């Protein structure tokens, strides 16, 4: 049934899910997985949209589209972050693997044997891939083809470039041990440069977090309470329109048509939107890709909305008696 449902999904999306499942070492049919995700998201969004529309009088179609889209995006981002977590781990240990392989080659081992003995338990998921690589070579698969397939199972640009150098060295018959040592040293130097860059942009990360998580909710809390005060006080002022005094005033006092509930809802919507965008910017600045900020979205939303209501409560407690709003 799930495979039948996946036929209504664009093939490009199915291919993307298949690649992420391969990167994440999840052994399941991609079409069945896509069908399960879309059918579950459809049912969940349908039930949730009915409940929210009946309780809050929101348009049911709009609520359904938002919930369904959010569900699918969260599932996709979960797989994407899982694949990236594996690739980051592999990139961190890749210099050690190359150094160990170079030592094995200098000890007189063959290339395939040096690869197989480089699989250590502390290398985690990469050790599994290296063991699989060794089994493929032992069953008669060409070593260069097996290395290319290894790079295709891990979402890492550094690993792809390293495999390209290794395959080129194998085909040309060059000195692999020196090539592996130089590659490992270059990867370590690049890692040091990346860490220096992250430390330099830390101030920007703190500034964005403070602006989104503290500055915006404080300002929205003050402005929403100001609207509540003006709405309350202007409704009590009555100036006859026919008097000379009212006609000579340089300004006009009219009734505020914006409700306090609308202002609060607008503030919450703005805070949620700015939290999502701010989290994406934080991920882009700190780690080089907006997708890494997804895990910061719920933290920023809860933090900013919580401060918004705390500010409103504090101002109401301090000034509510003055303006007669207690």
Gist?
By secondary structure, the chain is mainly alpha-helical. 79% of the residues lie in helices and 0% in strands.
What does this structure look like?
There is one protein chain. Helix 2 crosses helix 3 and helix 10 (202-234) runs parallel beside helix 13. 79% of the residues lie in helices and 0% in strands. The chain is mainly alpha-helical and 326 residues long. The protein has 3 domains: 2-85, no CATH class; 91-197; 201-237 and 250-323, no CATH class.
Gross geometry: elongated
Q: In what range is the share of β-strand residues?
A: under 5%
Q: Calculate the terminal CA-CA distance, rounded to whole Å.
A: 59 Å
SS-derived structural category = mainly alpha
Number of helices: 13
Total count of domains: 3
- Order of secondary-structure elements: HHHHHHHHHHHHH
Major beta sheet summary: none
Uncertain runs? none
Mean pLDDT: 81
State the main characteristics:
3 domains; 326 residues; mainly alpha; single chain
Topology:
Layout: H1 2-6, H2 11-23, H3 30-56, H4 60-106, H5 111-117, H6 125-138, H7 143-152, H8 157-172, H9 176-200, H10 202-234, H11 244-248, H12 260-287, H13 297-323
């Amino acid at each position: 049934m799930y495979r039948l449902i996946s036929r209504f999904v664009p093939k490009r999306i199915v291919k993307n899910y298949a690649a992420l499942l391969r990167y994440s070492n999840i052994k399941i049919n991609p079409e069945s997985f896509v069908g399960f995700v879309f059918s579950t998201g459809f049912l969940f969004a349908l039930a949730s949209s009915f409940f929210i529309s009946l309780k809050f009088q929101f348009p049911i179609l709009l609520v359904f589209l938002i919930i369904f889209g959010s569900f699918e995006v969260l599932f996709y981002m979960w797989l994407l972050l899982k694949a990236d977590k594996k690739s980051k781990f592999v990139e961190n240990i890749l210099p050690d693997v190359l150094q160990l392989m170079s030592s094995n080659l200098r000890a007189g081992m063959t290339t395939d044997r040096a690869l197989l003995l480089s699989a250590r338990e502390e290398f985690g998921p990469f050790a599994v891939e290296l063991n699989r690589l060794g089994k493929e070579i032992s069953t008669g698969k060409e070593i260069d083809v097996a290395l290319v397939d290894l790079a295709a199972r891990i979402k890492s640009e550094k690993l792809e470039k390293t495999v390209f150098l290794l395959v080129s060295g194998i085909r040309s018959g060059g000195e692999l041990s020196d090539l592996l040592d130089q590659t490992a040293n270059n990867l370590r130097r690049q890692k040091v440069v990346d860490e220096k860059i992250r430390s330099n942009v830390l101030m920007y990360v703190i500034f964005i977090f403070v602006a989104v998580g503290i500055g915006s909710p404080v300002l929205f809390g003050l402005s929403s309470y100001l609207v509540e005060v003006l709405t309350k006080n202007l409704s009590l002022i009555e100036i006859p329109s026919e008097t000379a005094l009212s006609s000579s005033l340089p300004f006009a006092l009219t009734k505020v048509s914006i409700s306090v509930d609308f202002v609060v809802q607008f503030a919450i919507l703005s805070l949620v939107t700015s939290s999502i965008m701010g989290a994406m910017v934080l991920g882009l600045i700190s780690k080089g890709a907006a997708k890494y900020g997804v895990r910061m979205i719920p933290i920023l939303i809860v933090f900013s909305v919580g401060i918004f209501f705390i500010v409103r409560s504090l101002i109401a407690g301090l000034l509510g008696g003055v303006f007669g709003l207690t």
